Automatic annotation (TrEMBL):
GO biological process: modified amino acid biosynthetic process
Function comment: ATP-dependent carboxylate-amine ligase which exhibits weak glutamate--cysteine ligase activity.
An example Gene Ontology molecular-function term: glutamate-cysteine ligase activity
Keywords annotated in UniProt: ATP-binding, Ligase, Nucleotide-binding
Name under which the protein is recorded: Putative glutamate--cysteine ligase 2
Reactions listed under catalytic activity: L-cysteine + L-glutamate + ATP = gamma-L-glutamyl-L-cysteine + ADP + phosphate + H(+)
Family as reported in the entry's similarity comment: Belongs to the glutamate--cysteine ligase type 2 family. YbdK subfamily.
E.C. number: 6.3.2.2
Organism of origin: Pilimelia anulata
Amino acid sequence: MTGSGVVRPPLRLGVEEEFLLLDPDTGQSSPRSRAVIEAVPADWRAHLQYEFLSAQVEIGTPPTRDLGELERSLADLRGTVAAAARSAGARLAAVGAPPLPGPAAPVVARPRYLELANRYGALADGTALNGMHVHVEVADRDLAVRVLNHVRPWLPVLAAVSANSPYADGRDTGFASWRSVRWGTWPTVGPTPLLRSPAHYAELVERLIDGGVIMDEGMVYWFARLSRHLPTVEIRLGDVHATVADAVLSAALVRGLVGRALDDVAAGAPVPAVPDALLRAAHWAVARDGLAGRVVDPVSGAQRTAGRLLRDLVTRITPVLRRHGDLAAVREGVQRLRTAGIGAARQRAHVRATGTVEALPPYLTAMTEPAEAVADFAA
């Protein structure tokens, strides 16, 4: 129930995850996406698609209002695709960027991808960057634009939670999310501008296209945007998570944040005033330091660590989490992060324990693949 006394059902949501394909012998990127997709049973392929490079695949869950159902969908899809990858001579890894050096995977031979590679030159070379996108249903476009304004200052916290790419080219980059650094070189990647209306959103997109900066609306890579083909707000700033449990936590936090934004819009609450320069600095800080990165508190304006602000965010969205039935899952997930660390911290701990970055690929695939789903598919 909202503050106005109106009973509102849980917001519908869905998740897209991008994965890296690895060679089981070398741990390097494996350009076998076509063989993997062809090995997936036909009735699952509607939830699977090619990504930009041939060492990547992407899954998309069916929309749902239930967090448990989302978790099952992610586990089933990961398990099915992981088993298909094994049958095609590859392994599925949920990691933001390839940890080991190796030959660049070819661009998938589809017209749009080839045009991207042609237009953007060296930006398109080499690294397979893998993220997670969360869609939350907000059918009214005017309302959705207002939601974008309200969520933008909190997004560095979600980026910190997702950081899962500390290694590249066989070495520690010094960043928790190297993917964020590499991805940030593409045009339009960054915080969503403050928007006046859907017409203002459309005008900005049109001017970016007319100016030759982007090819089409699909290249609007703002961290929060309106979906082109769905009645949703799309949050698209994080690394793909190592585990299903981490992905579900992020999805619940995103849905809670969008739900709180809807409540704030309904109450006429002002949009938090965080200068763009400080917001960009916050995203850079969490890309480097994860939850230890310092960000701007949208409420007080003070500098806080992202870990501290995560606690504040959970408190802020608790009424929405309770309304959605997600509160227990979020509290459990946040406690897990405090105990085990984010994906980047766990990768570094594994390298310290084994003494070599080359031990990462089998570790990453083990974290990615739900063992019972792989066993079911193989049977």
